[in-house]
Specification:
The chain has one domain: P1 Nuclease (Orthogonal Bundle), CATH 1.10.575. The protein contains 15 helices and four strands. The protein binds 2-acetamido-2-deoxy-beta-D-glucopyranose (3 copies). Pfam families: S1-P1_nuclease.
Length: 385
């Protein structure tokens, strides 16, 4: 290793010691690291004019005649930051999720058709902070980028897209024998299980682009696994092989425009009060000049809440509170938290690669948006390895 001192600093900043760092940060760092691998080299360099200098690291990618390494800055270092300031700035809490009205997965799955409980949510804050990465300067721009990176992760965590039991925070389950909140199973425990159980991809991939974004974190093998087997990167002579998402990943960052909801409402019939006159069209949030469409992106992912996150053996309704004993009703059967590490729950999630895909989608979209916003027009946007 040529730059061991630098890498040691960066690794310290990435906070690899579980005892020191909240576990939940790994998901955000993985998303940021996947994004880092997909950034144009000029964008990586530009990050250093936004992020603080302790996120810098020297890299010999892209290869050049220069003897000196390029200076890049790493998105993962500050990906968890908005969680660390939540208690200091309580107003920022609601920016991490969205609560659709009438949504009670898995029995009733609504995502914006009847509105949101608050206009300040992960969808509107994604627009807000993405726009501010372009318009702000100095510390405000740095903060906007930290939020942007973080919120791309949150918007792809299915339980950040529902308000049932505070996004599963109030649902107690067992995971690998330990009592846990359903929310943290998805934020943390499933990801840690994937990291722990992956035994291959410990060696470097033949790609300077990818390897220069991996700085020695415990989740590096998982990032390589997702890139290689999910996205087919690095491609072999342009061929992505049998990558899991070979037919769809190129379209993940696209925004088709939001004609569908409005068209459906127009068809409701003449003379009738259109649905949109009572509840705002949920896709309105996508109506910006930015290359993002938070509603269009998250709307199909809301089905993961109903199909996987609140699927059996998670109870379809919150267990009844214990009765106070003086009434003649028979007391309810004591509730035992169900174990989720069973084939019908975790087995399905793993078979369908739900976690891997959400991490990949978030990272690919984040990088595409940053490449679009920060790349000078004249530069070519194709990536070489
Ligand atoms: C980082 O910036 C601070 C001031 O903003 C400066 O004191 C420090 O020397 C810089 N560190 C490096 C490694 O450039
Ligand atoms: C972002 O939100 C802040 C606080 O609500 C507001 O002052 C600002 O105008 C918003 N910016 C954009 C670009 O939406
Ligand atoms: C790596 O391990 C995973 C399971 O942990 C397996 O699905 C995959 O096929 C392995 N890949 C290679 C190239 O060995």
């Amino acid at each position: 290793m040529k730059f061991s001192a630098w890498q040691a600093l960066l690794v310290a900043a990435l906070c690899l010691l579980p005892s020191v760092c909240a576990w939940g940060i790994a998901g955000h760092q993985i998303v940021a690291t996947i994004a880092q691998t997909q950034l144009h080299p000029l964008v990586r360099e530009q990050l250093c004019s936004i992020l603080p200098n302790y996120t810098q690291y020297p890299s010999h990618w892209p290869p050049s005649e220069d003897v000196l390494p390029r200076t890049h800055c790493h998105l993962a270092v500050l990906a968890g930051w908005p969680d660390t300031i939540r208690s200091r700035y309580p107003w920022s809490g609601q920016l991490h999720y969205v609560n659709p009205v009438d949504d009670h997965p898995p029995t009733q799955c609504y995502y914006g058709e009847t509105g949101w409980t608050s206009p300040n949510n992960v969808l509107t804050s994604l627009v807000n902070y993405t726009s501010r990465v372009v318009t702000e300067t100095g510390w405000e721009r740095d903060m906007a980028l930290r939020f942007m990176v973080h919120l791309f992760g949150d918007a792809h965590q299915p339980l950040h897209l529902t308000g049932r039991a505070r996004g599963g925070n109030d649902v107690w389950v067992h995971f690998e024998g330990r009592k846990a909140r359903l929310h943290s199973v998805w934020d943390t425990l499933l990801i840690n299980k994937e990291i722990r159980e992956l035994s291959n991809y410990t060696t470097r991939l033949p790609s300077g682009r990818i390897e220069s974004a991996l700085v020695g974190a415990r989740y590096d093998p998982l990032v390589r696994f997702i890139l290689k087997e999910g996205l087919g990167q690095p491609a072999i002579r342009g061929d992505v092989g049998n990558a899991w998402w070979r037919d769809e990943s190129a379209s993940w960052p696209a925004c088709q425009g939001h004609a569908s909801v409005s068209d459906a409402q127009m068809l409701e019939g003449e003379g009738q009060l259109a649905f949109s006159s009572m509840v705002e069209d949920p896709s309105r949030v996508d109506d910006t000049d930015l290359p993002i469409c938070p509603y269009e992106w998250t709307q199909p992912m809301h089905s993961l809440v109903c199909d996987y996150a609140f699927a059996a053996p998670v109870p379809a309704w919150e267990p009844a509170p214990p009765s106070d004993g003086d009434d003649s009703e028979p007391s309810p059967i004591p509730f035992t938290e169900p174990e989720l590490d069973v084939p019908e729950y975790v087995g399905r999630i793993e078979r369908d690669k739900v976690i891997h895909k959400q991490l990949a989608k978030a990272g690919v979209r984040l990088a595409a948006v940053l490449n679009t916003l920060l790349l000078p027009d004249e530069s070519v946007s194709t990536l070489s390895d």
